[in-house]
Structures are given as structure tokens and as C-alpha cells.
Amino acid sequence: MRDLAKAVNLQGGSLYAHIDSKEELLFELVNRAADEFLASAEAVPVDLPARERLARLVRGHLEVVLRELGSATVFFHEWKFLSSDLQAKVKGLRDAYEAHWRRAIEDGAKRGEFQVEDVRVATLFVLSALNWTYQWYHPGGKLNLEALSKQYSNLIWKALEAR
Amino acid sequence: MRDLAKAVNLQGGSLYAHIDSKEELLFELVNRAADEFLASAEAVPVDLPARERLARLVRGHLEVVLRELGSATVFFHEWKFLSSDLQAKVKGLRDAYEAHWRRAIEDGAKRGEFQVEDVRVATLFVLSALNWTYQWYHPGGKLNLEALSKQYSNLIWKALEAR
DNA sequence: CCTACCGATCGGTAGG
DNA sequence: CCTACCGATCGGTAGG
Predict the structure, then answer these.
(1) Less CB within 10 Å around the terminal CB: N or C of chain A?
(2) Segment A1-34, tens digit of pLDDT
(3) A135 is a domain residue
(4) Is A135 within 8 Å of B143 when comparing Cβ atoms?
(5) Going by C-beta distance under 8 Å and a sequence separation of 6 or more, which residues neighbour residue B80?
């Protein structure tokens, strides 16, 4: 908390003129991150061909992760340390977000574009690959958002496609 | 450290009769985990067909993650807090491990079994999907190591295969 | 928003 | 391996 105070040019305790507790601050950050993921998925029209819909979800997800690498790291690592009722709120957003992905894959399967053994496992597989990006991505390298989204979309299309 | 001491029926400070520092203990755990991943990859023959080779890498990786969910979590989250020279040792093992995956995918591409735009990105994609498993897997559910390995291998085969 | 402080806990140690 | 302790740091607060 002292480091955070220093980062905004305040004395140690002065942060508490603005917030009630460390946990409130953590929740604010985590909740905001979860919200951005959800908003990016809600912006994707559901009547697109499944391939295009998935490509937009992929790009939205990676955009949030790459734009907020620091927040994403805190989000992924620290949400488990919230009290159980704050955790539940975050879980609600996360579940709503995952549902967008599950429905996109399900719809693709119904349309005959995709074919998967288990929609839940396929959804977890795809989201796992995307989430982990925060661990290895270095901004400013030659692999930008465009290039990464395109390659990941391709790999995911192939993994899910009906043959 | 007091919690750890209690867990092995010692008083707070008595742990230090066995270890030198908290960091040494963390390194021990992280290094061991990295070693187990590497050992599981080294056990896979390199002269198998690429598909089979990859399936064994997948199963080995998931076996380590599922068998040591707790250690895997600490490994993935906490290795960044080691001093830079201990970090470097862990990075060495991790790089050697990733090289096994990269070579397996490269060889598959050379044999014509696989076709990928960028081997590095494809390797990161696959390892990302596998690593994240520690976040959602619940032991004792209906999805056991066998079933998960099979489904993940299938998704990965499809993502990488030449068409 | 600062000064000055609180009790609790941290990693670790001396001496037995 | 325990007892008893160290200085540093933690999240947070009272009073201005």
C-alpha cells in the first residue's frame, strides 16, 4: 500500500482518504478487468458466421490482455484472495464471459462449421490458450496484436473445424 | 513460514534448522516442478510419428500438472519472485522443456504431418492451453487424466495438422 | 492529505 | 528442535 501511495505522490496513510481498504482496491481492479473482457465479448454480433464470430472474440480477448498486461496479471493471480462474496461477483462476470465463448462454439457446431467432442472442454482449451498470453507476451516485439490474433484465430479455427 | 512450520509440527523458528531461507525453500519447490516437466518430456522417444510424440508430451504435461496441482500453482505464480540468478536456473529448465515441444512440432512439419505458420507461436499456443489447466481442473470430477489428455491431444492435432 | 502512531505479523536468529 | 526474541514492515487510524 505504501508503494501504491508513493506511485500517486501521497504519503503512506493518505491513500485511505480515498479508499476503505486494500481489498476494496483489489476488487475495483479485478472487477474492472472482468468487465472489460465481458464488454469485448458483448460487442461481437451473434449472427456472424461462427468463424468470424470466433475471430472477433479472439481479437477482443487478446486486445484486453495486451492493453492491460499488468491488470490482467493481477486479475488472473489475485482474484482468489478476495472475500468469498466479492469472489462470487467476479465469478459471475467470468461465467457470463465464458458463456459467450461456449455459445459461439455451440452455434458453430450446430451450423456444421465446427465439430467438437465436448463443448465445455473445447471452450476451456481455447480460453486457456488465450489467457496464458499474459505470461509470455512482451509488448514492443515484432509480434503485435494483429499478427497474434490472426495466428491464434487460425490455430483455433483448425482445432474446432468440422472435417 | 509459521504456517509451513505448523504443517510439519514444528515451532515457528525451528524450520530454520532445516533450511537457510524462505527463498531457498521456494527455489526447491519451483526447481523440482521444472525438473518434473523436463523429465516427462525427455521420456518421450523422438523417433515416433509426430502425432504420437505430441500425444505423449501432452499426457506427460497434464500428468505433472494434475498430480501436483498445488506445486504447479506455486511454480507458475511465484517463480518470478526468485532472485535473478535462481530465476535464471529455472528459466534454463523451462527453455529446455519448451525446446522439446518446439522440436516435436518442427519435426512434424518437416515430415509433412503438421503445417504451421510460425513454429514459435504454435508452440506457445499449445503450451499455453496446457499450462492454464491448473486454473480450472478439479480432481475427482468426471474428467480424469485419460479423458482430458485424449481430448486435448485431439484438439492440438487438429490445430497443427497439414490439410 | 499529512504526521505520527497502533497492534499484528513478517523472515530470521541466539542460546540452549 | 524449542524459547524467546530482533528489527522491519504490514494494513490501517486519530487528529489535525
Answers:
(1) C
(2) 999 999 999 999 999 999 999 999 999 999 999 9
(3) yes
(4) no
(5) B87
- Chain C nucleotides with an atom closer than 7 Å to a protein C-beta: 1-5, 10-14
Q: What is the CATH number of the domain that holds A59?
A: 1.10.357.10
Interface A-B: count of C-beta contacts within 8 A = 76
Q: What is the pLDDT of residues B60-107, one digit of tens each?
A: 999 999 999 999 999 999 999 999 999 999 999 999 999 999 999 999
In eight-state DSSP terms, residue A138 is: -
Identify the domain containing residue B137 by its residue range: 22-160
| Residue B8 belongs to some domain of the structure | no
Q: SS3 string of A90-116?
A: HHHHHHHHHHHHHHHHHHHHHHCCECC
Residue B1 domain-assigned (yes or no) = no
The answer as to whether A3 is a domain residue is no
Angle in degrees, CA B99, B103, B108, rounded to 5? 155
B8 DSSP 8-state letter: T
Of A96, A11, A106, A12, nearest to A53 by C-alpha is: A106
Which residues in chain A (104-143) have CB-CB distances under 8 A to chain B? 116-118, 121-122, 124-133, 135-136, 143
Q: How far is the CA of B52 from the C1' of C5 (A)?
A: 66
Does the pLDDT value for residue B163 go beyond 90? no
Return the nearest residue to C13, CA–C1'.
B13
| Integer Cα distance of B136 and B124 in angstroms | 19
Q: How would residue A163 be classed by pLDDT, with cut points 50, 70 and 90? A: confident
